[in-house]
Amino acid sequence: MDLRDFKSGTYTQQRQYKSFRPSPINHTWIWSNPKINTLLEEANHKLGALDAFSRQLPNVDYFIRMHVIKEATTSSRIEGTKTSIEEALLAGNEVGPERRDDWQEVQNYIAAMNHAVKRLRKVPVSTRLLRETHNILLRKGRGSTKTPGEYRRSQNWIGGSSLKDAVFIPPSHEEVDPLMSDLENFLHNDAIDVPHLVRIAIGHYQFETIHPFLDGNGRVGRLLITLYLVDKGLLTEPTLYLSDYFDRHRLLYYDNLTAARARNDLAQWIMFFLVAVAETCNKGITTLKKIQKLREDVEGKRIVRLGKRLPKASALVMNLYRNPRVTATETAQMLDVTSKTANELIQNFVDLHILVESTGYKRNRVFSFAEYVRLFT
After folding, report:
1. Which candidate, 311, 314, 325, 351, has a CA 20 to 30 Å from the CA of 141?
2. Taking the model in full, what pTM does it have?
3. Which CATH number fits domain 3-287: 3.90.226.10, 3.30.200.20, 1.10.3290.10, 1.10.520.10?
4. pLDDT tens string 34-61
């Protein structure tokens, strides 16, 4: 189908309201707009550069956790959750009661994302994987009553306080299963020639239009993008997340999705998506370069001054890349050393301006690798 001939779908009368049934997408797509070709070339180039750089970075998996935490906080923020990266690193008993629901949603997202990426080793991106991911995303906290892991069996809506004043009403729940099957088949149909980035741009649009769950659709839909790129080998590690770009351009994000439905302008959505990929790749490469520079400074200049303590110091630094927040007790357990040695090593790190005490307490103190955390904020 030529993008110029795209018809987004039809409205179906359902008692007192009309729901929108999107057209199936599992077929070849072509376009005559040369701008799409230019943006697609640039996005593919940038994506390849990001993946190549991440593969050259030693122990890149140590830094993936912070990428995941950033994505979890940003994607959740789009849905109204207000938790910072620093807050997401806290333990549950350190979060105030008024902030705990937001904190829990971010923790659920982190767990869901980690589960989904791990499962990709055994199963492809599929409706099965998306339901598993959704089940973890909503298993605790505010979403636990919204049928986690199951497609909806009732009508939902977007915007407004009810179906009567809704901004958009997705398809009836009876249509969710066949529409999601069509989406899954489209993502894996080797018989059609559609570039991967165009395919997942259309796939994300279709997922958000179907809105298959009672809650969590935005978060799962954005995670779908990263999972698809990893599944298809465009990314070796899950280092690209578009939520930050979508959040900074939130009105354009929603406007372009709406324009595709209301005015059949799928081409504009695809162009917006490709720009998002290219710019996010640039930002990702910049962050990885800053990580590399910080590592060279910390590992190559600062901790080498510690002499005999260098092996333990190196082990502590590597753990700080995974979790840039630590206590003396955790350090003693992690490195299998005495409390005295752990406290002395932490003090060494404070003196070297690697760790900063973040509580102001004299006991039960918590230390942060703040310089590293700032690279993601």
Report:
1. 325
2. 0.92
3. 1.10.3290.10
4. 999 999 999 999 999 999 999 988 888 8
